[in-house]
Amino acid sequence: MAYFFGSIPTAVWFGRAFYGVDVREFGSGNAGATNTFRVLGAKAGAIVMAIDILKGWTATLLPFMLNWSIVGVPGSSQFINFQLALGVIAVIGHLFPLFAGFRGGKGVATLFGMILAIHTPAALTCVTVFILILLITHYVSLSSISAAFTFPFSIAFIFKTPVPAVLIYGIAICALVLVTHQKNIERLLKGHESKIYLFPKRK
C-alpha cells in the first residue's frame, strides 16, 4: 500500500490532464514538484507538491489508519521504526513509480510528508528554512538541500529525539537528497540553475 501511494505520479497525471504536457519531457526531466514549478508554473507546482506531501504523510500514518497494534505501541521505537519503513517505501515508489514507467521525481516532497507524520515540529522547522532560502536565492534545489540538512540537525540538537532510528533516517535523507540533486548541484556551481519566483518580479 505504501509503495502504491508513493507510485502515484502526480506531476505526470496532473500535467497531462490539465496542460496536455508530460513534465518529464521538459526542464530537468523529473516527474516532481520542482520540475512542475519550472515547466507549468507556481499554481500547478503547488498542487503537485501538496499531493506528493500527502502521499508520504498517508503512507507513514497507515499503522494508525488501519489500527495495526501488532507493530507496537504508538510512539514506541518499534512503532516509529515501522512507520519509517513505510515512509521509505513510499519514497521509493515516488522515485520509481509503477504507474509511470518507473520514471519518477526526486522524492523531496514525499520525504517531507513522511517527516511531517513522524515529527511535526522538525518538519515545520524544515519548511521555515526551505521558504527562507527560496525567498532569498529563488533556487528550489538549494532550498530542498538546506531543508534536508536542517532535519537531522534539529532532531539532534533542538528537539533531542530519543529514538535513534529517526536521527539515522535524517542523516540518510541528507545523503539521498545529495545523490538525487547531483545535477542541480553542478548547475548551481556553474550558475546555470533555473530560478523560481514565488511572487512576480518587479519591473
Describe, in short, the structure shown.
The protein is mainly alpha-helical and 203 residues long.
Task: Describe the structure in your own words.
There is one protein chain. The protein is an all-alpha fold and 203 residues long. 69% of the residues lie in helices and 0% in strands. α4 (42-60) runs antiparallel to α6 (77-95), α4 (42-60) crosses α7 (108-118) and α8 packs antiparallel against α9. It is globular.
What is the mean pLDDT?
89
Structural class estimated from helices and strands: mainly alpha
Largest sheet: none
The helix/strand series, from N terminus to C terminus, equals HHHHHHHHHHH
Shape: globular
Structural Rg:
17 Å
Break the fold down into its secondary structure elements and pairings.
Elements: H1 2-7, H2 10-19, H3 33-40, H4 42-60, H5 62-65, H6 77-95, H7 108-118, H8 120-137, H9 140-158, H10 164-180, H11 182-190
